[in-house]
Amino acid sequence: METNTPKISLITVTFNSGKTLADTIRSVLSQTYSNYEYIIIDGNSQDDTIDIIKYYSSFFSNKLIWISEKDKGLYDAMNKGIKMATGDIIGILNSDDFFTDNNILGQVALSFKKHPNIHALYGDIHFVNPEKPSKCVRYYSSKIFKRSLMRLGFMPAHPSFYIKKECFNKYGLYKTDYKIAADFEFLLRVIFVHGISTLYLPIDMVTMRTGGSSTSGIKSHIQIMKEHIRACKENNVYTNSFILSLRYFYKIAEIIYTKIKKKVSFQNWRID
pTM (2 decimals)? Predict the structure, then answer.
């Protein structure tokens, strides 16, 4: 085990995730960094999710902790994992996502060690076609993120976000009465309102399949807009529908840029 390095608690929430979970778990197993614990919170899945978890549990050398029980939704399950976590740093890896490289946790840990005064860090992610996971359809860079842009609905890529556990203890957990944007509300609360210190890592950290609740359909985008407005109101941050809609122009530009650059293969990509 690495000495004098932070322990990372990585949390994955599952519910009937049998089609994609094995990829997620294997990407965790492939990490070269060893000072971590992996917490899987399952919502009483009825497919082969539990069988997959049981199969891979022996490969983790007691680093995998999991439970399966009914919950009150995604954010309730995330909060369960956070409460169970014993690490210094907490990150979320969705059950249909996977690490883009085998040294992501290592670079996260090294960055917190080099910059002991930061509270959180984040990087880039990219989206792929679920049927063709080697084909990038959109590259999401967090490089442009600034605290002031949260009024427009901008946020660091949540799957790349790692934060000290003490921040959850101090500022609270995810709000469970949000359907789709509790991650935005939490980041708004800790970054915009409380001003925690953050660091941007210029690396592609996570591969996300399109089709999730935050990336599919007009209804989901309408719900996101409503919850972003609500989050801003609850945190006394001024915004409105017009201001929040401006970020969609940037999203379109990201997609166009991705197509032009033809970033098609990230499976074995890494930063040296």
Answer: 0.88
